[in-house]
């Protein structure tokens, strides 16, 4: 696999700068707001050359950051990439405009079954197309973890995270967890044998009882820093997104620094999610956004992005152009047996959101 880097082309900014201020508007320009480390190096330049449209490409590293900007309004962005459950409630809030599907002929390339799932979040697939999809699991420095836990430790199990006797032994080499309660709490519920979409207060109390004993051993909550931290050997364990951990593995291999990183889908099952392409209702240049969506869904373009970022795509027509190492990697495209243990993300009620927020804040602060 090729080494993967955060693209610096087409006006890409660091996440902090992307959050600081809305982009300046320009005629014939497209303002694209996407996750960090989530596009191939040539995707934007090729689009600019093909269309003559100048692209400003900014990045974020959490759905909460994106949602805050969208709810504030007047972002100046033409195309954004929320995860499915956030997109669902944002559609209900009228934040996005319907897609003009005649302008996106490449929508026909998307897998019907996956789009049918997406329709449960976006009825009729009126507002969103699938960009990439993946799972949330465990990233580990294999040598450091094995050295501390022993070869007989259940390295395919979330016991490594949720049992203090294991996580305590990893605390000296660094543990990062996604700052993403909408993912980690359903994973914890599922681990406990409960409904990952539970709205039962008693179930959330069980999750709190599970999480609080491990809090002393978590080094940091962050949704992007773990990539380089794993690659550089600065941490030994992370709960992260599939492609991010595999990017860390590639960076470590490219650096030849003696670090071996692996991604593990937990044996208990975990969350699968979809990131989507949507156009804000107040987008300054929706025509350019439609052109970009169609470009991203070109089979060769989709394949090049998946090959670069190590995330699965929903574009059936892209398969002939994909790196076999990506297409045949069960960590990226799980087997049917593993897929049966995955559960999709679902939007939750305001009451559940409040319970999640309270619990997550208590977990992060440790009090």
TrEMBL record:
Annotated source species: Roseospira navarrensis
A cellular component term, taken from the record's GO annotations: periplasmic space
InterPro entries linked to this entry: SBP, Sperm_putr-bd
Protein name: Putrescine-binding periplasmic protein
Function: Required for the activity of the bacterial periplasmic transport system of putrescine.
Subcellular location: Periplasm
Signal peptide (from-to): 1-26
Keyword Signal: yes
One GO biological process term: polyamine transport
Record has Transport as a keyword: yes
A GO molecular function held by the record: polyamine binding
CDD domains cross-referenced by the UniProt entry: PBP2_PotF (cd13659)
PANTHER family for the chain: NORSPERMIDINE SENSOR, SPERMIDINE/PUTRESCINE-BINDING PERIPLASMIC PROTEIN
Record keywords: Periplasm, Signal, Transport
Gene3D superfamilies per the UniProt record, alphabetical: Periplasmic binding protein-like II (3.40.190.10)
Family statement drawn from the similarity comment of this UniProt entry: Belongs to the bacterial solute-binding protein PotD/PotF family.
């Amino acid at each position: 696999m090729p080494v993967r880097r955060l693209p610096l082309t087409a006006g890409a900014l660091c996440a902090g700068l992307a959050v600081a201020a809305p982009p300046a508007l320009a005629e014939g320009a497209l303002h694209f707001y996407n996750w960090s480390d989530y596009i191939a190096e040539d995707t934007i330049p090729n689009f600019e050359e093909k269309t003559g449209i100048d692209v400003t490409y900014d990045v974020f590293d959490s759905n909460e950051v994106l949602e805050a900007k969208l709810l504030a309004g007047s972002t100046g962005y033409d195309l954004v990439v929320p995860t499915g459950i956030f997109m669902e409630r944002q559609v209900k809030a009228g934040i996005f405009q319907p897609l003009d599907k005649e302008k996106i002929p490449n929508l026909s390339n998307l897998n019907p079954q996956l789009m049918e799932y997406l329709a449960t979040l976006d009825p009729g697939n009126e507002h969103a197309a699938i960009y990439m999809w993946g799972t949330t699991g465990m990233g580990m420095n294999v040598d450091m973890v094995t050295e501390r836990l022993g070869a007989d430790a259940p390295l395919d199990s979330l016991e490594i995270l949720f049992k203090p006797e294991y996580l305590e032994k990893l605390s000296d080499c660094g543990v990062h967890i996604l700052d993403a309660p909408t993912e980690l709490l359903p994973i914890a519920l599922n681990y406990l044998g409960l409904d990952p979409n539970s709205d039962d207060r008693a179930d959330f109390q069980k999750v709190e009882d599970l999480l609080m004993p491990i809090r002393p051993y978590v080094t940091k909550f962050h949704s992007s820093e773990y990539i380089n931290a794993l690659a550089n050997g600065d941490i030994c364990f992370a709960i992260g997104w599939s492609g991010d951990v595999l990017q860390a593995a590639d960076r470590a291999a490219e650096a030849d620094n003696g670090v071996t990183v692996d991604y593990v889908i937990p044996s208990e099952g975990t969350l699968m999610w979809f990131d989507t392409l949507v156009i804000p209702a107040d987008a300054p240049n929706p025509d350019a956004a439609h052109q970009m969506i169609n470009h991203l869904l070109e089979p060769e373009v989709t394949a090049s992005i998946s090959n670069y970022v190590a995330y699965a795509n929903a574009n059936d027509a892209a398969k002939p152009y994909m790196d076999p190492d990506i297409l045949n990697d069960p960590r990226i495209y799980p087997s049917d047996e593993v897929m049966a243990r995955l559960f999709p993300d679902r939007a939750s009620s305001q009451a559940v959101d409040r319970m999640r927020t309270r619990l997550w804040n208590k977990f992060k602060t440790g009090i």
